[in-house]
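Run log, item B.
One chain of 486 residues. Sequence copied directly from the ordering sheet:
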Amino acid sequence: MLKSLKSITFLIIISVVILFIVVFSLVPLLFFPTRSVTKKGDIVRKASIENKNDEPADTEIKIVPEAKPALKPIDYDLMIQSKLKYYDYKKPFIDTINFKFEDKPVYFYYPVYVYLNRYYLPVENFVNKINGSVKVNKQYLYLNLKNHSAEIDTQKGLMTANNGTVQVRNPVKKFNGVSYISLIDFTDLFDMTTSWDYDSKTISLYFDRCNLKRNAVSTGRTALIRLEDVSVDQVFDTADALAKLRIVGDYLYSDGVPFHVAWVPRYLYPLYKLDNDPSRYYSMYNADFMYTLDYLIKKGALIGLHGYTHQRGNVESIVGLEFNDKFNDTDTAIADRLKAAIKCANILNIPVYFFETPHYAASYGQHKVMEKYFNYLYEPLDSGHEENVYKVTLGKRVVRYVPTLFDYVKGERDTDNMIYKIDTVNPKALASFFYHPNIDFPYIRFTKVEGTDYPYYAYLSNSPLHRIIDTFYKNKFMFKKITSLK
């Protein structure tokens, strides 16, 4: 009898345990939705698939509803988007930005203004605060700071310093009767470098210690270089990345290389509702990006438009196509996008000299529309293997198609292949290529020196870009701008 009771008790315990396990197995299914764990890389690949539906022709890009991935990747783009502020480009506004000069805080009596995503400084107040002196004589400002003397003609927008007289990059402004100049013009005037910290909203200024000098090359066979896919966010989404892009510009300038920049004016990633257009949205990051574009122009860059968004549908900018014979293929659709890109450049005071179709995918008919808006189409007309400029006469205008015979460097491992192309090119061909500057970023290394936050760096001379430029010079080439081509 006792043995039988023990058996029954054992069976009851086993049954309770099994019931307990079953119940707790069902609870997650009843109360929590099942989701698959997806790697970030998988999400990016899915997001990069082209949407097969034609995109509407209007310039306001409509986000097409699409199933979201199970896990949303956390990346810097989302952080940037959360800090964007819409602004009316016609109206300057005030933002609290902290400034340092040679590691010491600078406190202004007048506010810092933002205009077209540029920071405007009260020049007289700033110079006085950092132990300089200013004299005002009608339309002129005479500035002295340490070993730097400068003069600004506030009416004509001319500034004169050690490098001669040049036009200011951005218009001189007066806010409440006080003269303001943009940060890029201020740093250029006094030969300064900058360091940006978005978290503390601080910009540190230092007298430049690199002693950058230009190595002018005046003779040789013609060569062209274009820096590709320059846009807000994407691979240039940090202060360090933008600083490295400026350093690449410094290197090209110092090595006597005029260069071109293919700029995508509006970054879109509709799948994650990201839309960053610096002509409409302000952030400190966007101001840093515009400072960088201005900086490259100061170093001799010609800026061109690389599409409007470099994408369509739900695809991320830079990844996707924008024009081909299947979409954006009507005259209206093409013109709307070209006008939107030009408008963005005009608002932001960025002079543009050429247009380049994303991935060289434009059809013959699309090219015909583009010819109406640009004198230079920086791409091959047809096959991609053209060796020289092709000219199209439209009344009194001549449109030039400028090919890139050498194509581009497909990552660091492709450097030797590019060098081979340079060494063996047909002497009568135009030696032209484009380059993604972020390939060189691992070769640019910032260093810290005790006692200062000055952004010292080393740019290694064995970088792919250094090796390529050295090969051009070894073969007696001379870099030019497309505007000098006959």
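Observations after the first pass:
- The radius of gyration is 28 Å.
- The domain at 209-484 is CATH 3.20.20.370 (TIM Barrel).
Flagged for discussion on Thursday.
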